[in-house]
Amino acid sequence: MSSGFQTTEELLSDAIDLMDDHEYGAALPLLTRVVSFEPKNEVAYELWVNCHFHLERFERVLELADAGLANGLAPVGLHIAKANVFRVQQREDEAFLAARAALDADPSSPSAILAMIEIASGSGRTPLVIEHARNYLRLFDKDGEVLYLLAKAYLEQGDHKRADRAFRDAAEIDPESIDNHVGVLVVANLTGNHEAAVRYLERLDPELGHEVQDEFERVMGLGPEEDAP
Fold it and tell me: Which one of 72, 135, 173, 197 is at 20 to 30 Å from 183 when CA atoms are compared?
């Protein structure tokens, strides 16, 4: 379909390019035009909602997501959009229910499973993090973020051996992530294996190693602020 001088396909393509460059304000009117001409276009509609999210128009996200869901559009993506809004607003129970709805809509969707892992991790539902993270890693390629959240969940349960393995796997996939390396050091510290921590640091690139050590000290309360890995 044509919309002015551009087809809706061209408008959608331009909007995707703009979103890839984080130009959400510029992408929004293009997506609005596409949706106005093709209200059943699921891809455009979901991107439109996500554009509003990135522009922090959270109530508009909820409004549009509910309208889209009522019309049978993109149930996984729109439930995830709602979950993300609720998480930002610290409405943990509603975020969990929205993530659960996304997973119910398509239990095999990697996006739905990942949303559940993230929401469950943020709300302290440790057994669910482990369940869904292990399911994700069984169904799909290894993912550094999933492994990191799985490692944190194991750490919270006191399962140091599995936490160490997951942190190391995450670090192997994403070696530039300071948090993954810090996790390995935290486990070594908790198990009294200080020599292993020293050897691990020595194997890192010197600049990265200094950053990891600084963050580890901060996490363990030796720096200006205390936090969790």
Answer: 135
Smallest CA-to-CA distance from 103 within 135, 63, 66 is with 135
Predicted structure pTM score = 0.86
Q: How far is CA 162 from each of CA 36, 73, 88, rounded to the nearest angstrom?
A: 51, 40, 30
The 3 state secondary structure assigned to the chain is: CEECCEEHHHHHHHHHHHHHCCCHHHHHHHHHHHHHHCCCCHHHHHHHHHHHHHCCCHHHHHHHHHHHHHCCCCHHHHHHHHHHHHHHCCCHHHHHHHHHHHHHHCCCCHHHHHHHHHHHHHCCCHHHHHHHHHHHHHHCCCCHHHHHHHHHHHHHCCCHHHHHHHHHHHHHHCCCCHHHHHHHHHHHHHCCCHHHHHHHHHHCCHHHHHHHHHHHHHHCCCCCCCCCC
Q: How far, in Å, are 3, 5, 150 from residue 154 at the CA level?
A: 53, 55, 6
How many other CB atoms are found less than 10 A from the CB of residue 152? 23
Q: Which residues are paired to 7 by β-bridges?
A: 2
In order of their start, the domains of the chain are 1-71 (1.25.40), 74-132 (1.25.40), 141-229 (1.25.40.10)
CA distance 186 to 178: 12
Amino acid at 155: L
Residue ranges of the chain with per-residue pLDDT less than 50? 1-3, 225-226
What pLDDT, on a 0 to 100 scale, did the predictor assign at position 229? 56
CB 78 within 8 A of CB 46: yes
